[in-house]
Design goal:
The complex is a heterotrimer of chains A (about 280), B (about 325) and C (about 550). Chain A is mainly α and about 280 residues long. Chain A is about 70% helix and about 0% strand. Chain A has helices at about 15-35, 70-105, 110-125, 125-135, 140-170, 170-180, 185-195, 200-220, 230-240, 245-279. Chain A is elongated and about 75 Å long. The chains are: A mainly alpha (about 280), B mainly alpha (about 325), C alpha/beta (about 550). Chains A and B meet through α3, α4, α8 and α10 of A and α1, α6, α7, α11 and α12 of B.
């Protein structure tokens, strides 16, 4: 039977998961801009009287080996973690858009060569490529951003290329050619904006992923180093006491998980909405 | 525009086309590896400063300048004194001779270092891939398009696990099952018991990811007309799922398995680190810390090789599952 | 419910049809989430007879068919006074007992075997599946039974085809295999949901013959279709559905040739054919066309000479899609190109539009070079030729509103608007010309109905004021009543503007209704051409003759 006309999505259906994700991201943004609103303590205040305290009302996430309040450190670490996430994702996207568009628009030889190169780059798992860069340049904040950015770029580039190829097939591209628009005008008016539609969703997913990669590097002792309150660095710092004070490891990790989940869920919601609107 | 075409005299026999396709794939794989080797080779040139100086400083633990005479034996040992192009050709052809250069710190061939340690890592990775597939297919089959609560449970579980970073799952499993419950050993062993937690650490997020992909496809497939046809023949829901839907819905996840294997190998680095389990991960972290670029490059290349081979196998696997893909 | 002829025909049927109904449905209601899509319908099916349920999209006909095998779908609510199979109550069955009936007592055939058969399994396994499900025979006996069944439905080399997969078979053979699977257990009732839709007309005729054979063996057939002319070939009884209700129900001769209900009459009038040439299709407006502008047979607007197009496949085998095609399209004329799928008609259209470069040959536009120009030199004269596609939605940028789409087209036209106000005025005039209003300016195409979208597509094509319009299957995706409106619009526009149409369709009725002259294409070649009436009444080429014999049509009173 022929398709029944879909009712136009008049209102955005708010699923509970979406609401929670938006709230989590809102809290993260506050921590990013004004961490002082979420905690009154100083992230670097050492208190040797109260080291390695387990979570309680006065210290929500407990304290570390120098008596610093872990919750406060997590709040203040948001800025650095998100900085890395944003920076790496932005770098990855710029590379991905350039490579993806060139590969998607080029035909024949250039497309083949670029696609092969992307295949090669994709053959390097993100973490390994990042480790190679760190081995060469030595660990630092800048290296981590560049490493994670370059590491995840090929994956996005392939997505962008796929999107370009998909949009290139669309009926409206041919219709626009049939009206007498130049190739460049068609790219500018239709191909570019439509191929870019999923990008916001991809960015949102990407930031979460970048934070995970960066904290993974730090966890291995190869990313941002303690005493920075960057989330990965907190994990690195907590490893020594893992059998006695596991909260130092589990709680910052949980924050990363919750932040990533919120970003991923938001990204997916955006993706579905865009797909729905594009049909 | 539809371009329905008329085949005219298909003169080339099908086995010739199959063989040509296979050769093309192998050639492509070789090219990918050479390109990967080129990237790692030039990456080694990006090390700041003089490489021989860096090696000597690494050995002596000092940071100083050396005379040309002091540097000469090192340059000769690593071949830094030869022209760049011959170093490059040597490196790339070495790839096919099983020669990945010499470690800056251990002064042993990188191939040997990797060969000693890669066994446990491969066991871990393979076990994790199988476990992930079993978990993903099992959970999908049980929960996709069931009562709303069951389906929601399944998809939430997948979304949740898919975004768990491996180090965190590792730590939680370690704390709960090894430290608190004492079911598994805390410190890494390559025994079967010691392998359980690292495998789960890698398999759980991958299962979530594969499950999501399979579930999306499964839902689409269950809406297809051929599923309705099967039902009109009097087939039960379970039989429809197993006999018709499953085969269609695993294709995208199979396509991703090659990539997943690469991701698993890098996840293994973290899992081995968490559980103090011997393997390539430990070697890699040490090598990165000591700036032993040839060893890092070698490991990266081996992983790229595994990825390339895995993708060849995947190509084969999905043409078996979906013969339509053989034609294209 | 008031069904004009139901009582009368029911009485007549009892007189001529003493047999008891095999499948009897009384007051069937189906709702999805509170929205009722089937609103209390009743009908009976008798052994050896075919009941056709006819309706446009959204009429509830397919839902009705699914309900008869207990597969209405998730979230549905079914209520009925009676669903009986040979006296056995089906209305209150459990899923488990439904399964025993499906495939064994009631067979089901869906449209388009390419998606209705499992592409990953062998044809033989698919055909034999009902046997396996209902535990008939052994593995080996089922295999040989599948081959027998394939042979019985006229599949050549059945033992070879049984080992192939559905995608390796031609469309016709696939559909036969699908039917073979449905009749594997010799069910007493066969439900066919659009069994011939998406098939070429010659294949369609074969499939209908196959169903007729099944009927003659005593099977009760319930056929669901949107196509009244297909129904005429097989049905003994017709029920016309609209918005969940049966508006007219009776013997086929009554309903198709002496319809009582207005909707049935409108549906019948809307079918384009040789008889409708020169008239309007929408009922109540069936006045002859307005005075038509004369065709200027001295001025060929498009002249195509020896076009051919060869594609090289990935297996490096050349396929000739268009082979030595020549034609001329005169000013003010409609030239129809008709052919089955794969005949090369769409590629020919693409070449005429200079969107697909021909391998050999060229097309001139109004006496000067067209396809042989470079893209840059062609662009300024593109405004002289426009195009309307089959699927209007995909031809609109999803981000653009109707207004923006039309302004963009005006700007590329012969008289680009000089101000925003002028652009708006002219867009509104265009919308009115195609039967829409200014209120659609801000709409996204996604929000429009199929017919409205095609009107926007036509408006866009007309905006640059072209002399030639290439219409590539412009009504194939539309319901027959909407199709009638769009075809009427196209003829009106031709009368008004004198535009020439190169009209591509697989539908012989549509082609005959619209065209002055036609080309019949097969396998990339033109096998016959000439005046439309002459070709249709006295076809010379055996292929055209075959097409026309296969064409299901309503004999006009």
């Amino acid at each position: 039977m022929t398709a029944i006309a879909l009712p136009y999505r008049a209102a955005l259906r708010l699923r509970p998961a979406t609401v929670v994700s938006v709230l989590v991201v809102a809290v993260l943004v506050v921590a990013l801009i004004a961490p002082g609103l979420l905690t009154t303590r100083d992230p670097n205040a050492i208190d040797l009287q109260s080291t390695l305290l387990s979570p309680s009302w006065s210290h929500w996430f407990g304290t570390d080996d120098a008596g610093r309040d872990l919750y406060t450190r997590v709040v203040y670490g948001t800025r650095e973690s998100f900085g890395i996430g944003l920076g790496a994702t932005a770098l990855a996207m710029v590379i991905a858009i350039v490579l993806g568009f060139v590969a998607g628009l080029a035909r024949g030889f250039v497309d083949t060569v670029l696609s092969r190169i992307l295949d090669v780059a994709f053959a390097f798992p993100v973490l390994l490529l990042a480790l190679l860069l760190i081995a060469i340049r030595g660990p630092s904040l800048g290296t981590v951003i560049v490493a994670v950015g370059i590491g995840s770029a090929p994956g996005y580039a392939r997505m962008v290329r796929g999107q370009v190829l998909h949009v290139r097939q669309a009926g409206y591209i041919q219709a626009s050619h049939a009206l007498g628009h130049t190739r460049w005008a068609v790219i500018r008016q239709h191909l570019f904006p439509n191929a870019m539609r999923p990008l916001v969703a991809m960015m949102t997913l990407g930031i979460g992923q970048s934070i995970v990669w960066a904290s993974g590097l730090a966890f291995l002792g190869l990313g941002v180093a303690p005493p920075s309150p960057e989330w990965g660095a907190l994990l690195d710092a907590g490893r020594a006491a893992i059998t006695t004070s596991p909260w130092l490891e589990i709680l910052p990790g949980l924050v990363i998980v919750v932040a990533t989940l919120a970003l991923t869920s938001l990204g997916r919601t955006l993706q579905h909405r865009l797909e729905g609107a594009a049909r | 525009m539809t371009t329905a075409v008329l085949p005219r005299a298909l003169s080339v026999p099908s086995w010739v086309r199959t063989a040509r396709g296979a050769l093309l794939k192998i050639a492509t794989a070789a090219i990918v590896l050479v390109a990967a080797a080129s990237i790692t080779f030039f990456a080694q040139l990006l090390v700041p400063g003089d490489r021989a100086t860096a090696i000597l400083n690494q050995q002596t633990g000092r940071a100083q300048q050396y005379t040309t005479a002091e540097l000469a034996p090192v340059n000769a040992q690593f071949g830094f004194d030869r022209p760049l192009i011959s170093q490059y050709l040597d490196y790339v052809t070495g790839l096919f001779r099983g020669d990945l250069g010499t470690s800056y710190t251990q002064h042993r061939p990188v191939t040997e270092i990797i060969g000693d340690q890669i066994g446990p890592s491969l066991v871990l990775t393979a076990a994790a891939l199988v476990t992930a597939w079993v978990l993903a297919v099992g959970i999908t089959l049980l929960t996709v398009k069931r009562r709303r609560a069951v389906s929601a449970l399944g998809s939430t579980w997948e979304a949740l696990t898919a975004s768990l970073p491996p180090y965190w799952i590792g730590v939680v499993l370690l704390v709960v099952f090894a430290v608190q419950l004492r079911i598994f050993p805390v410190i890494g062993e390559t025994s079967a018991r010691g392998t359980v937690l690292p495998v789960l650490t890698l398999a759980i997020p991958l299962a979530g990811f594969l499950g999501q992909v399979t579930r999306d496809e499964f839902e689409k497939v269950l809406d297809q007309p051929f599923i309705t046809t099967a039902r009109t023949r009097g087939m039960s829901d379970t039989a429809v799922r197993l006999r018709h839907a499953l085969r269609h819905s695993v294709v995208p996840a199979i396509t991703l398995s090659g990539w997943a294997l690469g991701a698993l190998l890098s996840g293994a680095v973290i899992a081995e680190n968490v559980f103090g389990r011997p393997g390539i991960g430990q070697v890699l972290v040490t090598a990165v810390n000591t700036r032993d670029v040839p060893t890092v490059s070698g490991i990266v290349l081996v992983v790229a090789g595994v990825y390339v081979i895995a993708n060849l196998v995947v190509d084969l696997a999905y043409t078996v599952v979906d013969p339509r893909l053989r034609a294209s | 419910m008031t069904v004009p002829t139901a009582a009368a025909s029911a009485a007549g049927r009892v007189a001529t049809e003493p047999q008891a109904a095999l499948l009897s449905v009384g007051n069937l209601r189906v709702a999805f989430g509170g929205r009722e899509v089937v609103k209390g319908i009743s009908f009976d099916a008798y052994p050896g007879r075919c009941l056709a349920i006819v309706g446009e999209s959204g009429s509830g006909k397919s839902v009705t068919a699914r309900t008869l095998v207990g597969l209405t779908g998730a979230g549905s609510h079914v209520a009925a006074d009676r669903i009986e199979l040979d006296g056995l109550d089906l209305a209150t069955r459990s899923e488990r007992s439904w399964r025993a009936i499906r495939g064994r007592d009631i067979g089901f055939v869906l449209q388009d075997a390419l998606v209705s058969l499992d592409q990953l399994r062998r044809v033989g396994d698919e055909v034999a599946e009902p046997l396996r499900v209902h535990h008939r025979g052994t593995r080996a006996s089922r295999r040989s039974r599948a081959i027998e069944l394939l042979e019985a439905v006229g599949v050549p080399e059945p033992s070879v085809k049984a080992r192939q997969r559905p995608y390796e078979l031609s469309g016709g053979l696939r559909q036969r295999a699908l039917i073979a699977s449905a009749i594997a257990l010799d069910p007493r009732v066969l439900i066919a949901d659009e069994p011939t839709t998406a098939l070429d007309v010659t294949v369609q005729a074969q499939v209908l013959d196959l169903l007729a054979e099944s009927k003659s063996r005593g099977t009760a057939i319930i056929m669901i279709s949107h196509d009244l002319s297909v129904v005429a070939r097989l049905a003994d009884e017709v029920a016309v559905m609209r918005e969940g209700e049966i508006v007219e129900h009776g013997p086929v001769d009554e309903v198709l040739y002496r319809p009582v209900h207005e909707y049935t009459k409108a549906l019948l009038d809307a079918i384009p054919s040789e008889h409708t040439r020169g008239t309007r299709l929408v009922r109540g407006t069936s006045a002859p066309r307005r005075t038509r502008r004369p065709i200027d047979a001295d001025r060929p607007l498009l002249s195509a000479r020896h076009l051919s197009k060869v594609y090289r496949g990935p297996d490096r085998v050349d396929r000739t899609v268009v082979d030595d095609v020549s034609f001329e399209l005169f000013a003010g004329e409609t030239l129809g190109i008709v052919g089955e799928s794969g005949s090369g008609k769409t590629t020919t259209a693409g070449i005429a539009l200079a969107l697909i470069p021909p391998t050999a040959g060229e097309v001139d536009l109004d006496g000067s070079a067209w396809t042989s120009l470079t893209p840059g030199r062609r662009r300024p004269i593109r405004k002289r030729i426009g195009v309307v596609y089959q699927d209007p939605l995909s031809s609109f940028d999803p981000r653009w509103t109707v207004g923006r789409i039309l302004v963009d087209a005006l700007a590329k036209g012969k008289r680009p608007p000089s101000s925003r106000a002028e652009a708006r005025d002219r867009v509104v005039r265009l919308l009115e010309q195609v039967g829409l209003t200014a209120q659609h300016l801000e709409d996204a195409p996604l929000r429009l109905s199929g017919g409205q979208r095609q009107r926007v597509a036509i408006a866009r094509a007309l905006a640059p004021e072209p002399e030639v319009l290439v219409c590539d299957e412009p009504v194939s995706a539309l319901d027959v009543s909407i199709q009638a409106q769009v075809l009427d619009l196209l003829t009106d526009l031709q009368d008004e503007l004198g535009v020439s149409y190169l009209f591509i369709s697989h539908d012989l009725g549509v082609i005959h209704h619209m065209s002055d002259r036609i080309l019949v294409m097969k396998d990339g070649r033109v096998v016959e051409s000439g005046d439309a009436d002459a070709v249709f009444r006295n076809p010379q080429h055996p292929y055209t003759q075959r097409l026309l014999t296969a064409l299901p049509r309503l004999a006009r009173a």
